[in-house]
Each structure stands twice: as C-alpha cells, then as structure tokens.
Amino acid sequence: MEALKPLKRAAEKERRRANRKALREKANAGLLSLEEQALVDSRKQLRQARRGARGLAEADMQGDWKGGVVVDLGFDDCMTDQEIISMTTQLGRLYSSNRTASRSVATVLHTSFSPNASPRLWEKMRKSNWEKWTRSSWWGLGLDELVKAFKDHPDHIQSDSFTPTDTKPSETDLMMNSSTALNTDRSAANGKGNPSDLIGDGTDTDLLLSNLSHPHLPSPFTSKYKLVYLSADSEEELTTLSEDEIYIIGGLVDRNRFKNICQDKADKLGIRTARLPIGTYLQNLPTRKVLTVNQVFEILVNYIATQSWKEAFEAVMPQRKFNVGKPRKYNKDDGEDGVGDDGDGDEVEQVGNIATADEIDEEAALNA
C-alpha cells in the first residue's frame, strides 16, 4: 500500500489539473454556472490572501538576524535510540523557538542529515514535517564539506554553486539515488518538488530527499562569514554575537559519555571555538548546568533580542530553579543526568532530555 501512495497522489494531482483547465475553458466561453462562478471567485480570493500573507512573511524576514546557525548532526552513531528520539524533539523545539522569536535567525543549516549520513535520525524525523520548516536548510553533507566551502572556495559561496571536493561517488549515489534529485532546484528546496521530476523508486524517501539543498549553500551564506563552534571546552569565552559569523551547535545527546567531542572535532577541522559565558553571568549555579541543543539556540536568540547575556540566560535558565541546598526532585524529563555532573557551572554540554517524538511542535511545522 505504501508503494501505491505516490501513484495515487500523482493521479489526484493530474485530476485536479484537468478540472482547473476545464473550468478555465468554460469561464473563457462564458458558460459557468452560478456554483462554478462562486468557486472561481473563492479561489481568486484565496490566491490574493496567500499573496498577501507571503508578502507579510517576506517583509517580516527582512528584519531577521543576518548571522547564521549550523546544527552539526554528524553524531548519529554516537547516540542510543532513545537519545536519537530526544534529538528529534530538540530540533523541533529549536525550530519553534526561531519561528516565534522576536528577531529570528535568518538561516539555520542542519548538516549530515540524510538516510546515509544519519539513518536513525532521518527515520525519526519523518513525521516532524522538517521539509516545511521556514528559515531552515538541510544538508546531506558533513561539517567538513562546509569548512571546505568557506576555506577553499570562498568565491563559490556567494554564487550558490559550491561543489564539494573529495566526496565519494557512492556517498552521493546512496543519498540521492539520482542526479536529478542531487541538483535540487529552488522549488524543490522549498518543499514544492514534483514527484514526477525525480528518478528513483517513487517512495516518500525520494520526496524528502528532494528537500536536501546540498551541494548548494543557503543563499545568505557568503564569503564574509566566519565559522565558530560553540564548545564548553573552549578557552575563549564568547562576548557578543556578530552578524558576520555562523555559530555551530553540536547536535549530540550523549549523557556526557564523550568528553571534548565537539572541541576535538572543531580542532581537527580548524574551526575557531568559543564557549557561552554562563559562569560570568550566572555565578550562583550550584552545579554544572547541562543544556539541550534547543536551549543553547534559545540563549542565542534571546541575546539577539536583548543584547544582554544575563537576560538571555535568565530567560532560558531562571535562577529560582537552582536553589542551593534544596533537594531537587527527580524529573522524568531530565533523563539520566538531571542537572548534570558537578563542575564549575560555566560549561555547556549538548545533552538532551528524554522525550518522545510526539512532543515536537508539529502544528507549528504544518502552519509554517
């Protein structure tokens, strides 16, 4: 039955197209009935309303923060199945935070996202409607290819035509299954790809693959941008956010099993690292606070809105929740670590809460 769904959708689409054509011909000949004329008028009003809404959305995006955020999803094999579920929840909450922020981040790029690069996360994300998320781009390629784009091919970035180097042919073949799907056009990248344009097995996977934008980079990313990997283990403390920088968040839920994993990855790729100034602005935390991926992002967008780290941290981590000396009740949403290991209180680890994929803000994605 699943294999027949794309065929049924294509047949239904063709039927609607034929009906619209017949209606236009009758309208041109002046042969519309009252009911048909009412239908034509209502469709016209709907188109006008959509154009108006699109115009408002475009105007709203003009005020977006022009810097960028990358979520590095290249840790699929480091997480358990439960942690993968937690990551899908965190990505959904991150999107919702950006969609409702007083000043949204213009572009959030997710790297290493494909059936080949992150098979379990890809499967869990199927029901999240990620292909409809606004201000979001999805790359099947890894962070190393993004680094190459900025370091080795800066002139290619602005033209939106960067071609990754040293990519295994079999990798591309496995991910996209066709050259047509690999060279995704803008309509497909916006979730409007035509199933008949794809060469593949005609499954839902083909339709989702058409929404991966690699090897093209998001158009706002130009050669002026610099990459900064957010790491708790960095020696540099972040003092401000700059619109000519792209901040990388490690998309990892690991219960602190892998020490320095993001720092080591950044060092290997030659990416500058920096840590959030939690210890400077929240000095009274009794323990080392463990943050989820979406909480790190929420701190960033709150800082963008207020230009105050203290207000940004308070919005995400109210200090009233960390009363020294008061026993803390276990919360089922805390997962294994709760508040985290003992430490200085100024470190950030991307450790997620145990949750189900149903908690993702699917309604927000549908209304995007």
Automatic annotation (TrEMBL):
UniProt keyword Transferase, yes or no: yes
Enzyme Commission number, as recorded: 2.1.1.221
CC terms in the record's Gene Ontology section: nucleus
Keywords: Methyltransferase, S-adenosyl-L-methionine, Transferase
Chain intervals for the UniProt region annotation (Disordered): 1-22, 325-368
Keyword ATP-binding attached: no
Gene Ontology biological process: tRNA N1-guanine methylation
Alphabetized GO MF terms: tRNA (guanosine(9)-N1)-methyltransferase activity; tRNA binding
Catalytic reaction list: guanosine(9) in tRNA + S-adenosyl-L-methionine = N(1)-methylguanosine(9) in tRNA + S-adenosyl-L-homocysteine + H(+)
Sequence ranges of Acidic residues compositional bias: 334-349, 358-368
Domain (SAM-dependent MTase TRM10-type): residue spans on this chain: 52-324
Membrane spanning residue stretches: none
Class of enzymatic activity (EC top level): transferase
Name recorded for this polypeptide: tRNA (guanine(9)-N1)-methyltransferase
Protein source organism: Naematelia encephala
